[in-house]
UniProtKB/TrEMBL annotation:
Species, as recorded: Pontibacter saemangeumensis
Keyword rRNA-binding recorded: yes
Gene coding for it: rplF
Biological role: This protein binds to the 23S rRNA, and is important in its secondary structure. It is located near the subunit interface in the base of the L7/L12 stalk, and near the tRNA binding site of the peptidyltransferase center.
Transmembrane domains' residue ranges: none
NCBIfam families documented for this protein: L6_bact (TIGR03654)
Name assigned to this protein: Large ribosomal subunit protein uL6
SUPFAM superfamilies xrefs: Ribosomal protein L6 (SSF56053)
Domain of life: Bacteria
HAMAP family named in the record: Ribosomal_uL6_B
Sorted UniProt keywords: Ribonucleoprotein, Ribosomal protein, RNA-binding, rRNA-binding
Length: 184
């Protein structure tokens, strides 16, 4: 049995879950509503204040999907109740970030500034404190979309291993390399 798949998902009182006839699970909560289609073979049942995901057989395909759909539904439940938050730090001289409307403007040492339109589901704030690196905070109820947006922003200027300049997640540890050494 899948260790993750067999765990029940506990539902807070503020959350409402519906499973449609075509096996689409919809989760509604204080932070919004999310839905995902579940494979027709996987069974999603609501028992008391818990959601249980079951598989019909021990086929390799069913075993693979059992834990996957349990994790996806659990991420939706956490997203609509608490939400997800990701913080990115810009390390480098002259690196700036400003948020205007729904557009994130980044100055990352290229000849032109980079403008990124944020999806409506993701809220972004850019904070620059004196003496510290600028920090971009992304918040959303959709974990997958939030990770995708954060990865896109990070890919604009990846952290280089010599000086550590670039965009990194707050708390991320970068393996630093030694530079050139002069021989005598």
């Amino acid at each position: 049995m899948s260790r993750i798949g067999k765990l029940p998902i506990s539902l807070p009182n503020t959350i409402e879950v519906t499973v449609a006839a075509n096996n689409v699970v919809t989760v509604k909560g204080p932070k919004g509503s999310l839905s995902t289609p579940v494979d027709k073979d996987i069974i999603v049942k609501q028992q008391d204040n818990q959601l249980v995901v079951e598989r019909p057989t021990e086929q390799k395909r069913h075993k693979a999907m059992h834990g996957l759909y349990r994790s996806l539904i659990n991420n939706m439940v956490i997203g609509v109740s608490e939400g997800y938050k990701e913080q990115l730090e810009l390390v480098g001289v002259g690196y700036k970030a400003t948020m205007q409307g729904g557009i994130l403007e980044l100055s990352l040492g290229y000849s032109h500034n980079i403008f990124l339109a944020m999806p409506s589901e993701v809220t972004a704030t850019a904070v620059t404190e004196k003496g510290k690196s600028p920090v971009i905070t992304l918040e959303s109820n959709d974990k997958q979309l939030l990770g995708q947006v954060a990865a896109k922003i990070r890919s604009l200027r990846k952290v280089e291993p010599y000086k550590g300049k670039g965009i990194r997640f707050v708390g991320e540890v970068i393996r630093r390399k030694a530079g050139k050494t002069a021989s005598k």
